[in-house]
Amino acid sequence: MKDDCYNDQHDPFQLAMAYVPWQHFDGIFENLEEAFQTGTIFPELDLPFTGRRCVS
Question: For the whole model, what pTM was predicted?
């Protein structure tokens, strides 16, 4: 069965490009229970959500 949607030629434009900066970790949580509660062993990644709730 021939797929009419598929084209052998590549599109001249890229679909997407990601920018992911290098992360530098300075240490880990000493207390593993605290790391478990925050969801990461890296203190630099402990960024709690502080957004507001949408109210209509």
Answer: 0.46
